[in-house]
Specification:
With about 50 residues, this protein is mainly beta. It contains no helices and 5 strands. It has one domain. The chain has a 5-stranded antiparallel beta sheet with strand order 1-2-3-4-5, with no helix packed on it.
């Protein structure tokens, strides 16, 4: 898994050559979300 960072139980991953717009994935316990890099809005999923 292309893990960028892990802190306080939060895992940030980013996949090479994935669909646009540029984004990263966040995992925190049972929560999953994708966040837009440009404005840091959650595009898919839910985080507490």
């Amino acid at each position: 898994m292309p893990e960028i960072s892990r802190f306080l139980g939060i895992i940030i991953v980013m996949y090479f050559d994935e669909h646009n717009p540029p984004h990263f994935h966040v995992q925190y316990n049972e929560y999953r979300a994708s966040m837009d890099i440009k404005n840091l809005n959650i595009t898919v999923g839910l985080l507490p």
